[in-house]
Amino acid sequence: xFYLGIDFGTSGARGVVIDFEGNMLWEVRYPWSMSNEGxxxxxxxxLFTLLEQIPSExxxxxxxxxxxxTSSTVMxxxxxxxxxxxPLLYNDGRGAVMLxxxxxxxxxxxxxxxxxxxxxxxxWMSLQPSFAEARYFMHQADWLAFLLHGELGITDYHNALKxxxxxxxxxxxxxxxxxxxxxxxxxxxxxxxxIAQLLPEIAAKFGFPKNCLVRAGTTDSIAAFIASGxxxxxxxxxxxxSTLVLKxxxxxxxxxxxxxxxxxxxGDLWLTGGAxxxxxxxxxxxxxxxxxxxxxxxxxxxxxxxxxxxxLLKIGDRFPINDPNLPPRLEPRPATRVEFLHGLLxxxxxxxxxxxxxxxxxxxxxxxxxxxxxxxxxxxxWTAIRKRYLxxxxxxxxxxxxxxxxxxxxxxxxxxxx
Length: 418
Hints:
By secondary structure, the chain is an alpha/beta fold. It contains 13 helices and 16 strands. It is 30% helix and 22% strand.
């Protein structure tokens, strides 16, 4: 039997089919275009196109499907599941106007107290004319799964975290219910748990088994963590992409909205983390990919640069330093570009180490091993520098595709235990 994981990310949609041993059998991609069609129409087209592109001999043996979406990408639907308005994407901050109202209700420093949280988006939506037609509030992954199984009003506790769901006690908190938002809040289930079989017409159209299950999904970042191979308390994943994102697996839940730190439940453990604005986007401001590769090889790892930067594209960071007015620090400039790159890589490694120190200081498990994802994972010089600062084993992630992590979720659910 095979398993299908589908990732709806920021750059496009991907699908991965794996066998029961976790071997990747097929991969398909659907990049986002600049077309004028609505977001939900585009998503539906992408979903069905991905299914069509999987060879029929594989589809015949797929036992379960799971879908991830971008965190806090949300929408309102009518009683039939039809969107009543355009969805609000993960980075849409128009709900910030509702923060004052929410601050009077939610606990201090709660995850929902963010301009882009699912809950502030819902509060903003509740004031729009289209809200009168709405019956269900859904996350991107919920709605896409609904297209396959036909059940409305179901989400997973990863997507529900930024809606205010209490993932420790598995319920909506009283303060959220006191808001009395006149809409069905989704029923929350465990990621990877069975929701329903494929709709008969979907199974017949695409040639899936009639008993193929659709399982509850997750968010794209959690799916990427699951794909990494990290599974023990003290394991962490650093994503060296455009920004620097840290996630540490812990037996203790850590939350602090002041630093953008929150914890997802992952089996019996907690996945806690934060994101800094430093990262690859800063490097690309000064170097091409070819220059990064060339100059990295010329860095003398036996010597420290002696440079102390805080590399940012613009003013402000929130983790590990929470200061919206923090200025980029990129001076003094050394005599050569190799030395400049050396200083940047060392400074980013210090920020990464400081981030993990903050998570541990707030109660997370001691850092033991770091898996690396993102483009920076291929830079051996950067890896060596990071090892020096982190003082733990640093390895490349087993797999960096969120779709692969979601396929694992479809196969085995959340099996991580303390």
